[in-house]
Amino acid sequence: MAIVVVCDFDNLEPWINALKEVDPSVDIIKINEVKDKSSVGFVLAWNYPHGLFRKYPGVKTISSMGAGVDHLVNDPLLPENINIVRIVDPRLSQDMFEFALAVIMNRLRQLTQFRENQMRGIWKKKRYLRISNIRVGIMGTGAIGNHLATKLHNAGFKVAGWGRTAGKPADYKKYHGQEQLPDLLKSSDLLICLLPLTPATKDILNKNNLRMLPRNAWLVNLGRGEHVVDEDLIELLDSEHLDGANLDVFREEPLPEVHPFWKHPKIFITPHLASLPFPESVAPQIIDNYHRTMENKPLLNMVDRQLGY
Ligand code: OXD
C-alpha cells in the first residue's frame, strides 16, 4: 500500500525523496495519481479541500506534514474513524526558539529602528533593554512551547508559560487554565503565542486579554492567525497600549494585499516561516507511522480529536 500525499506545496520532490531515502520499498504517490480510491490507507496531508476523505473509505491514518493539525481537525467532514498524527520534531522546536530569540533580541536592541535611522542619515544613541529587563510569557507549553520556554529561561530571561493543564514541572514558572491566564498576561512584557488552534483558543488574543498586558508590551504570534482578533490588535497598538507586534501567521495566507497589517508602523510581518518542517528530519517518523498503521500497532504522536491537538 502506498503513502498518498495531498497538500498545497509547490514542490513535493524533497518530501518524496526524503521518504524514499528512509524506506525505498514504500511507494509515494500524489493524490491525483490514485487509481483505486478504496486502496488508500495512509495519507500525508497539508491544507487539502475539506470533505476530500469521504471519497477514500480505506484511510486509517492521516499524518499532518507539520506540527499543526487544525487543517485536519477543523474538517467537519473528516470521518470519525480516521486517526490523525502530527509531527513532533526537535528541529522544529529549536528553529522556533531561534526565530523567537531573533525577534526578542531585535526588540531589546532595536536594530530595525537603527537601520531606519541609517537610511535617514541619523546618528542617535538610544538606551537599550537587557535580557534580564524583560519578562517573557509563552502561551502554549507543549513540545515546542516547553523547548522555547526552557531555552529562554536558560539564556537568562524571566519566563512564564501558560497551558490548558499544569503538565510536567518545569524550570520556568507555569500557569494553567482559564483562571490563571490573567496572571500570565499581567506579567508578560513580551507575549509569545504558540497555542494550537482550537475552539477554546480561537480569538484568544482579543482586546480584553491584550489589555491585561503591561503598557508598552510586545506581542509575537507564532501560533495561528485566528488566535488574533485583528481589529483589536490594531486598536491596542494605535492607543499605545502595545508597543509592537511580530506576526508570522495570519487568518488568510498569503496576507491579502489590502490588509491594514501590511502598512502598520508597529507591525512586523514574516510569511509563516518561524519554523518549517524539513522533509529529511521528519521522514523517519512518517515512515514509522506508516508501518505502524499497516501492522495495526499504536501510532506515534496521535492527536486527540476532541481537544483539537
Ligand atoms: C506547522 C506550521 O504547524 O508550520 O508546522 O505552522
Explain what this protein looks like in three dimensions.
By secondary structure, this protein is an alpha/beta fold. It has two domains: 105 residues, 3-Layer(aba) Sandwich (Rossmann fold); 180 residues, Rossmann fold, CATH 3.40.50.720. It contains nine helices and twelve strands. The strands form two sheets. It has a seven-stranded parallel sheet. A five-stranded parallel sheet has the order 2-1-3-4-5. Strand 9, helix 7 and strand 10 form a beta-alpha-beta unit. The longest helix has 20 residues. It is elongated and about 65 Å long. The two termini are 27 Å apart. The model has no long low-confidence stretch (mean pLDDT 97). Oxalic acid binds next to loops.
Quick recap:
The protein is an alpha/beta fold. The chain has helices at residues 13-22, 70-73, 90-109, 111-119, 143-154, 181-186, 207-210, 230-238, 279-294, and strands at 3-7, 28-30, 42-46, 61-64, 83-85, 135-139, 158-163, 173-176, 190-193, 217-221, 242-247, 267-269.
